[in-house]
Inverse folding.
């Protein structure tokens, strides 16, 4: 900064003293999560892109799946995407410099053996609207089609931890809407894929959904069912089961 | 590699990772720069913590979307501060908040602080109250963030000479208000 005259010196001191009163504490993971999944105009917006309310379920599903996938993915080669929350979580593909700055503060959920039938729990995060959807209004319903969400699922079973891709459709009514699509979760050992359906309400601020995924690769012969509920938090909790056999037929 | 060079290299890596969608790298950037952005937004808001927090949160959303457009990662900090300043100005306009919160003179200032200096600071703070949010933004970028006229001009899309002229006018007004005090 160039040399300051006496008034500028006083002004600098006054402005900085004034700024000292600001509360600068920050939960960086939460702030980053809100920035990436910021809601605008009454609808959800992931990565700054407005997402209709009814897409919340899909987003939630994607988050959950992604978290699961991530858990299995740690240490394996693959996509370098990171996770918003919790902040200290890192992937093996990051630069050494970046990894050094992370403090490993997360407390992982007790892991399953990663075999046989299991009740699994975890979270979903890192949601990105990878492909925008088309929006067509038919009467009172807005039809959203062709959207693709990617996310990271981090679960307590490595088989269902990895990168998730959710291809979704939504019929958005004024405040509620059904949502459906296909979900694919993959990691280094195999993949899970199958249909999902759910519902959102409160203009998209709340949603839940379920998916029935069929395993392939190392998971051939198994089914992964999960359910997640979405609120206004920065990540979504996931509960599910893995069992040998095929999904039930209604 | 020197410490500074290593820091710069790490910052560049973080920016590139975040621009590529690495949300953890983005969170680390938030951790590193949030306080500086809040301080500037707080000054622009006239001491409104809520406006400052909302503005900086909005700035992070904009930063996440536009990080890829930052050609020079070394300029990350001033760029983030200018985004926060812009959001704070807009928040103030939306809320029509043009005056700062009242300063509790008795409560402010650390013990042991020279009373004469403190009185001078308070006079200046009161003078700042009469500025618009746009004017306080200029003051904050210059005297809180420490940016020079050229940097402010580059970040706000104005010629440096215009920034210097506006600053000179502001200083002149403040000088007059203090002398009229």
């Amino acid at each position: 900064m160039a040399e300051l005259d006496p008034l500028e010196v006083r002004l600098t001191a006054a402005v900085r003293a004034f700024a000292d009163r600001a509360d600068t504490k920050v939960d960086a993971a939460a702030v980053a999560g809100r920035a990436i999944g910021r809601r605008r105009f009454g609808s959800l917006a992931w990565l700054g892109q407005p997402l209709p309310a009814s897409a919340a379920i899909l987003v939630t599903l994607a988050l959950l799946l992604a978290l699961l996938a991530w858990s299995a993915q740690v240490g394996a080669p693959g996509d370098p995407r990171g996770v918003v929350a919790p902040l200290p979580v890192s992937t093996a593909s990051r630069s050494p410099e970046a990894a050094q700055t992370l403090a490993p503060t997360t407390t992982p959920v007790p892991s399953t053996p990663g075999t046989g039938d299991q009740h699994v729990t975890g979270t979903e995060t890192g949601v990105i609207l990878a492909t925008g959807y088309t929006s067509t209004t038919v009467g009172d319903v807005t039809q959203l089609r062709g959207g693709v969400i990617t996310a990271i699922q981090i679960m307590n079973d490595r088989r269902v931890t990895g990168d998730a891709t959710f291809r979704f459709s939504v019929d958005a009514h004024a405040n509620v809407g059904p949502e459906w699509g296909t979900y694919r979760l993959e990691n280094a050992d195999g993949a899970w894929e199958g249909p999902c359906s759910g519902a959102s309400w409160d203009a998209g601020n709340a949603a839940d959904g379920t998916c029935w995924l069929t395993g392939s690769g190392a998971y051939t012969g198994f089914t992964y069912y999960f359910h997640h509920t979405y609120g206004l938090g920065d990540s979504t909790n996931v509960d599910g089961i893995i069992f040998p056999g095929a999904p039930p037929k209604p | 590699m020197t410490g500074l060079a290593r820091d710069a290299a790490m910052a560049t890596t973080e920016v590139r990772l975040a621009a590529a969608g690495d949300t953890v790298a983005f969170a680390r950037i938030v951790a590193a720069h949030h306080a500086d952005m809040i301080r500037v937004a707080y000054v622009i808001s006239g001491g409104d913590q809520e406006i400052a927090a909302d503005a900086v949160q909005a700035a992070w959303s904009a930063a996440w979307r536009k990080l890829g457009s930052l050609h020079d990662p070394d300029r990350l900090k001033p760029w983030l501060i200018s985004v926060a300043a812009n959001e704070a100005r807009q928040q103030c306009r939306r809320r029509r908040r043009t005056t700062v919160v009242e300063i509790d003179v008795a409560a402010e200032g650390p013990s042991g602080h020279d009373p004469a200096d403190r009185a001078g600071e308070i006079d200046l703070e009161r003078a700042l109250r009469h500025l618009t949010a746009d004017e306080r933004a200029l003051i904050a970028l210059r005297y809180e963030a420490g940016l020079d006229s050229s940097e402010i001009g580059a970040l706000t899309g104005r010629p440096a000479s215009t920034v210097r002229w506006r600053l000179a006018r502001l200083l002149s007004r403040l000088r007059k208000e203090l002398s009229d005090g």
User: Anything to note?
Assistant: Confidence is low (pLDDT under 50) at residues 97-112 of chain B. The longest helix of chain B spans residues 23-45. Chain B touches chain A through 55 residues (CB under 8 Å).
